Amino acid sequence: MPVKPEEVRWVEPPRMGLWERLYVPAVLQGLGTTLSHMVRPAVTQQFPEEEPKLPPHYRGVHRLNRDEQGRVKCVACYLCATACPAHCIDIVAAPSPWPDREKYPETFVIDELRCIYCGMCEEACPVDAIELTTLYDLTGLTRREMLFDKEKLLSVYDQTVAAGTDPPRTRRGRLGPASEPLVPINQLGPSSGVGANAAHPSDNRTDSERTTLSPRL
Amino acid sequence: MAVITINDKDVELADNERLNLIQAAQRAGYEVPHYCWHPALTVVASCRMCLVEVGEKKPDGTLAMQPRVVPACQTPARPGMVVRTNSEKAKAAQAATLEYLLLNHPLDCPVCDQAGECYLQDYSYKFGRGYSRFKEDKIIRPDKDYIGDNIALFTDRCVMCSRCVRFTREISGTAELQIIHRGAHAEIDIFPGQPCNNKLAGNVVDLCPVGALCSKDFLYKQRVWFLKNTPSVCPRCSTGCSIVVDHHKDIVYRLRPRANPQAQGWFMCDDGRFGYKYINAADRLISPMVRHDKHTFHVGWEEVLPTLRRQVRQVVGEAPQSAWLVLSPWLTCEEAFLAVRWFRSLSPQTRLALGPVPVIGEDDRYPKDVHGNPPPPEKTRFTIRAEKCPNRLGVEAILRHFESQVQTFDAVLAAANKGQIQALYLTGGYPEPWLSDEQAKVLEQVGFVVVQDILPSAATTLAKYVLPGATFAEKDGTFVNHAGLAQAIHRAVVPPGEARNDARIFMELAERRGLPHAPTLRRELAAEVPFFALLKEGQIDPLGVFLNGKQN
């Protein structure tokens, strides 16, 4: 839209006095700033030799959470895929093999290259099954390797739980209403922490584990 | 002309018009929420969701509203009536009913297939409250293990509208479903050992306003909000049910009936509903093929079309009387027209015939009586026709226009047996194998066979050229049903691989430029073949047009 002339307001620059026109004080002021930085502690981080200190709410690689029995928590409702603005989540649902649940994801693939790490998936998830972790340095040699499948995403969960780097956003293991047994709210016990379930059965590790997230984890 | 007032809007009723208040409000543009009422079923007024305030204007101009709310579904619209569908009282009654219906309803929308097209969700949003005040334990009724081959019942989601029960009693007449127990423990069930497996059973899934009855075929396949809906026509029998094709990313996930009083009414049969799978079949023909001696080669369209054009022209030029074009009753009218025009442009003496018309058994009419016998014709509410193809009438009309008598496929076989056929152009599109081995053996005597089909069959093995065509979900066109009702079908998905829609193949063979555009082709067809004269506008009403001018 063109700017109308009547909308344009002309501003005069402030007139400089003798002191400003000398410029020497301004030069000295600038030198002072430079010198003060020389004596301050350095803020540059020596990445990758040094671990950067990321804020705990940083949104990195996804993980698929497990329930108390070590099963995938996801109920394959597709709400993350619906919310995803990058269309990077691909789910195939199937009737679940467990009696207490009707539906589970047969496959769950996230294209980590396509993802924009906006966090809408974890916001949409009704059962807190998908979360973004603080892992940021994921690499792979092929595009195919960067399609993270269900096993890979569960292994991210295992790694982050073992390392104690649970995202602070998590409701610490309390399932959403869809996967809960129908128990009145007032009878629910205190929520159990995800970190507390350290003894989850080791899942069937697959090739996907070979793509390393980070050697430190 | 009678007038009824709905929320200060006046609605005119025609003489002798019988509407209930839901329909009258619809006409005024107001939605009255309802679960148990369905236009095709009897009224039970059991869900109490459609409560409205009614009253009337006194002669002295004052308004006298009844003190209590009444169900709109069983209150007939009377002249002079005043209805309030959105007054405080009506809204409070609707919200209270909805809260009551949700008392024992599980909050499993994320895993429920109905989510997205669920009337509990929609009405909660529009008429209900956003939270539940119910603090007590919900009554959990375990799901039924088995009630039918194609339908699954999630008992705890049911709101007891009894639509499914009334459907099996009134439309299919088979009465498998019933309500057992009472009050809050009521649930839908079957008689032991009598599963709901009638040929219309799939309709109860559409009728169910909530996620209690789900289709086993569609269960957990896709979320409904991803699906795109394309209006179309079911091709599995000559009833020509109006349907909606639900598809996502070029995969057809399900077919649903579309209400059309001119075609079939509200429903469709399970043969049609689950008969779409050949569209996604893995063995679909996906590229043109040429046979040299005993070997077939996949070739591109650019290669095959010029040689095919040249060869057909050569063979027809040598003996036009012995060149036959067989039009399948699965072709749309536009395709049949283009095919005939191309073939006749080679030589006016070429022969035309109708492909095999599959007829299985007899027309299956519903509702059945207690012994399973069909009803008398005047009480028939749904018919599955024996003729298992969508467009025999349309193709026949075109054949009759170009050749005084419609030659059947038997005539083709007889001529082939006598060695009178030099070239044969077969069009298929049948979802089932359509050429028996004996028939194929007869046709082996023909030297030059071109087959345009969708699936491998006995015909494709004897063809010199195989051209991959398209199914009904992959093309635009017109089907004419058993009663002469012309309905438009629309392209929902793209054909697999290199397959092309049949109209395009015929246009390329005739060296006509451009892509097929159904309305344009329809106008040409209407201008040339008088049977289709009523389609001269090009566009067809969503409910179809009776080509004989009959009004319904």
What would your notes on this structure say?
The complex is a heterodimer of chains A (217) and B (552). By secondary structure, chain A is α+β, with helices and mostly antiparallel strands. Chain A has a domain of 117 residues: Alpha-Beta Plaits. In chain A, 21% of the residues lie in helices and 11% in strands. Chain A has 5 helices and 5 strands; from the N terminus they run ααβαββαββα. In chain A, the strands form 2 sheets. Chain A has a 3-stranded antiparallel β-sheet. Chain A has a two-stranded antiparallel ribbon with strand order 1-4. In chain A, β2 and β3 form a beta hairpin. Chain A is elongated. Chain B is an alpha+beta fold. Chain B has 3 domains: 100 residues, Roll (Ubiquitin-like (UB roll)); 123 residues, Alpha-Beta Plaits (2-Layer Sandwich); 181 residues, Rossmann fold (3-Layer(aba) Sandwich). Chain B has 14 helices and 25 strands. Chain B has a 7-stranded mixed β-sheet, with helices on both faces. In chain B, strands 1, 2, 3, 4, 5 and 6 form a 6-stranded mixed β-sheet that branches. Chain B has a 3-stranded antiparallel β-sheet with strand order 11-12-13, with no helix packed on it. In chain B, α2 runs antiparallel to α3 and α8 crosses α14. The model of chain B has no long low-confidence stretch (mean pLDDT 91). At the A-B interface, β2 of A face loops of B.
